Amino acid sequence: MLLARKTAIVHGGSGAVGAAVARAFAREGAAGHLTGRTVPPLEDVARRIQDEGGVAHVAQLDATDRDAVDRHADAVAAAGNGIDICFNATSNDDMQGSPLLDMALADVLRPVTKAVTTTLTTATAAARHMVRRGSGVLLVMAGGRETIADLGGSHITWSALTGVCRQLAAELSPQGVRVSWLLSPGSPAPGEENRADKAALLAERPAYDDVANAAVFAASSWARTMTATELNLTGGLVPD
Fold first, then answer.
1. What is Dmax (Cα atoms) for the chain?
2. Are 24 and 212 contacting, i.e. CB atoms less than 8 angstroms apart?
3. Which parts of the chain are coiled coil (predicted)?
4. Which residues 6+ apart lie within 8 Å of 192 measured at CB?
5. Taking the CB of residue 40, how many other CB atoms lie within 10 A of it?
6. Cα(99)–Cα(151) distance, rounded to whole angstroms?
7. Neighbours of 46 (CB within 10 A)
C-alpha cells in the first residue's frame, strides 16, 4: 500500500472530491481524519471507509477558523505521531453562470477570499507539524489556466490558489514538505461518466476516483521529487 502507516487530514471530507480522496487514502493504508461543517455526511463517509477495512475519524470544523484548525491539527498530530498528508477539498461558495460584467464585486471576491483563507489556514496548521519531522505533503485543488467564460470568481480563485501553493512550496520544500495542486475541469455527475468537454483530447472527463488516485500518487513516496507541481487531470482541455 502506497500510504501505509500515514496520517492524513482531508478537509471537506464529505464532498464529492473529498470523500473520494479520503476513501482512496484509506484504501492505500492511511489513517484518515475527515473534517467539515456538518457531521452526519462525514460520518457516512467514515462508515463506508470503515466497512472497507480502513481507518477514519470525524471532526466538525470550520476551515476558516484558524484557531480551531490549529487545535485540530495539534490533536491529530498528537494521536498519530505527526501529520503526513493534508488535502484541502473545502467548498468555496462560488457563483457561476454569469459574466463578470454582470456580477457584484462581493460575489466575485467571496470565493477568492474563502479559498485563500481555508488553504492558508489548513496548510499552515499541518505544515507546522510536518516541518518538525522534515516530511509531509500538502495537496490542494487549484489550477486557473483554463479560458472558460462565465465562471464568476472561480477561475480567479483557482489562479490565486496556485500562487499560494507555489509560495508555500518555495518556503516549505527546503524543510522537507512538498506542495502540489490538482487541476481538474470538474468531474461528471452520476450518469455523465462518458461525456467529455469538446476541447478535451480524451473521450471522458475524469471521474472522482481519477482525481483521488492522482492525489494518492502525489501524496506517496512515488512522487517524492515532485513539489511546486501541478497535476493536470483535464484530459487535454488545458495543454502542457
1. 50
2. yes
3. none
4. 205
5. 9
6. 7
7. 25
Q: Pick the more confident residue, 150 or 197.
A: 150
Portion of the chain with pLDDT greater than 90, in percent: 78
Return the pLDDT at 206: 82
Look up the pTM and report it. Answer: 0.94
**136-142/85-88 β-pairing:** parallel
pLDDT single digits (tens) 23-58: 999 999 999 999 999 999 999 999 999 999 999 999
Is residue 113 within a helix (H) or strand (E), and if so which, with residue range? helix 105-133
What is the Cα–Cα distance from 92 to 116, expressed in whole angstroms?
9
Provide CATH code, domain 7-232.
3.40.50.720
Mind giving me the DSSP string for 159-222?
HHHHHHHHHHHHHHGGGTEEEEEEE-S--PPTT-TT---TT-SSSSPPPHHHHHHHHHHHHSGG
- 92-140: per-residue pLDDT in tens? 888 888 899 999 999 999 999 999 999 999 999 999 999 999 999 999 9
Closest CA to 12 of 63, 57, 64: 63
d(CA 219, CA 182): 12
User: Over the Cα atoms of the chain, what is R_g?
Assistant: 17
- Span 202-226, pLDDT tens digits: 877 788 999 999 999 999 999 999 9
- C-alpha cell belonging to residue 51: 466497512
Q: Answer whether 92's CB lies under 8 Å from 154's CB.
A: yes
Q: Where are the domains of the chain?
A: 7-232
What are the residues whose beta carbons fall under 8 Å from the beta carbon of 98, sequence distance 6 or more? 150, 152
